[in-house]
Specification:
CATH superfamily: Immunoglobulins
Number of strands: 10
Number of domains: 1
Largest sheet: 4 strands, antiparallel
Length: 129
């Protein structure tokens, strides 16, 4: 991957005053949940952001600390803000269980994180399944 060149400054904000990411619904098999937030260009130039959604699975899942589960491309004029909704499929949150030979959603607390890169995830919300 190349270095990220910033020509504009992008800020992500939840729809609410706290820094939590609104999580709409618990995903049932085949149905995505939606992560919603606002992306704003705080710079003086037009720009494009790839808004990324990551999930941290419960410790019992034995997975890496975060997993990319959704993203969308957002083009913004200077000073423009856009509401963004990223669908997250339940399948993106499952792990393979060898004992049952199937994919399973591990019960516990998940942390959904939003930002412009895996190193800049300024919004987060815990959800339980």
């Amino acid at each position: 991957m190349g270095k990220r060149i910033v020509l504009c400054t992008i800020a992500a904000h939840p729809r609410h005053k706290n820094k939590n990411v609104p999580w709409v619904g618990h995903p049932a098999p085949g149905d995505p949940a939606t992560v919603s937030f606002t992306v704003k260009n705080t710079g003086k130039r037009a720009g494009t952001e790839i808004a990324q959604v990551y999930a941290s699975l419960p410790d019992a899942a034995g997975e890496p600390p975060k997993r990319l589960v959704g993203w969308t491309r957002v083009e913004l004029a200077p000073g423009e803000a856009k509401q963004v909704a990223v669908p997250v499929s339940r399948d993106r949150l499952t792990v393979y269980d060898e004992a049952s030979d199937s994919w399973k959603l591990v019960p516990g607390n998940y942390v959904i994180r939003v930002g412009g890169s895996s190193q800049d995830l300024s919004l987060q919300q815990a959800v339980s399944f």
